[in-house]
Amino acid sequence: MATKWNLSGSYFEACNCEVACPCVFLSAPSSGECNLLLAWHIEKGHLGDLQLDGLNVALAVHSPGPMTRVKWDVALYLDERASPAQRDALDAIFGGQAGGEPAALAPLIGKVLGVKSVRIEFRAVGKRRSLRIPKVAEMRIEAIKGQGGADVTLENVPLIAVPNQTVVVAKSEKLSLHDLGFEWEFTEKNGFYSPFSFKGP
C-alpha cells in the first residue's frame, strides 16, 4: 500500500504569456510557446511520518506549443535545507510518482532536464509574491487591481497546477531563469497565486 501524504501552503507562478495566460483555457500560448516557473512553499506537510513543513519547491517548464498537445521539458528545484529523505519525498510528490494532484501533470512531461538541490527564497507579503534561487532564477509578481481595488480571480479553469483553488491574477515584475539550457528574461507578463492543498495517493 502506497504511503499517504498531504501538503498545504502557498503557491505562485509566472510565465512569458500575456495576462491572463491563455494556456489555462487550453488555448495556444501568447507567443507560441510557454516558459513557466512555478513555486510552492509548504506550510504543513508530511509523507507518512516524515515531516515536510517549511520547505520550498520550484518547477521550470518549457512547452513548445499548446500545453496539452505537446511534451514539456522540465527542471525540478528542491530546497537545499531538506534532508536526503525529505528530498526523495519531494521528488516523488512533485515528480508525480506519489499520486495526487501533481500526478495529473506527469503524462505531459517529455524530458526532465535535471533535479537540483538549491537555496530557494520564497516570500508572500500582501498581494506580492517573490522567489529567488541564487545564480539561477528570480521571480516577482503582484496582483492586478480589479474593480474597486478587489483581486481579479479565476476558478475552475481547465488547466492549472493547483486544481480546485481560486487563483489571483497577477502581473510579473520579473521572471528570470538561466540554467539547464533555459535562458529567460521576462517582465510585465502573466502571474497567478493562491493557497494550495495536495494529498495522495
Protein described:
This protein has 201 residues and is mainly beta. It has one domain (5-194). Helix content is 5%, strand content 51%. It is built from 1 helix and 13 strands, in the order βββββαββββββββ. The protein has one helix spanning 84-94; strands at residues 5-15, 34-47, 50-51, 56-63, 72-79, 109-118, 121-125, 128-133, 137-143, 153-154, 167-179, 182-186, 190-200. Strands 1, 2, 3, 4, 5, 6, 7, 8, 9, 10, 11, 12 and 13 form a 13-stranded mixed β-sheet that branches. A hairpin with a 2-residue loop joins strand 7 (121-125) and strand 8 (128-133). The longest helix is centred in the middle third of the chain and has 11 residues, at 84-94. The radius of gyration is 16 Å and the shape is globular. The termini are close together.
Detail the topology: elements first, then pairings.
Elements: E1 5-15, E2 34-47, E3 50-51, E4 56-63, E5 72-79, H1 84-94, E6 109-118, E7 121-125, E8 128-133, E9 137-143, E10 153-154, E11 167-179, E12 182-186, E13 190-200
Parallel strand pairs: 5-6
Antiparallel strand pairs: 1-2, 1-13, 2-3, 2-4, 4-5, 7-8, 8-9, 9-11, 10-11, 11-12, 11-13
Taking the sheet with the most strands, its summary is:
13 strands, mixed
Alpha-carbon Rg, integer: 16 Å
Question: How large is the count of helical segments?
Answer: 1
Mean pLDDT: 96
The structure class reads mainly beta
Which assembly state applies to the chains in this document? single chain
Q: How would you describe the shape?
A: globular
Helix content: under 10%
- Poorly predicted ranges (pLDDT <50, ≥5 residues)? none
Between the first and last Cα atoms, what is the distance in angstroms? 10 Å
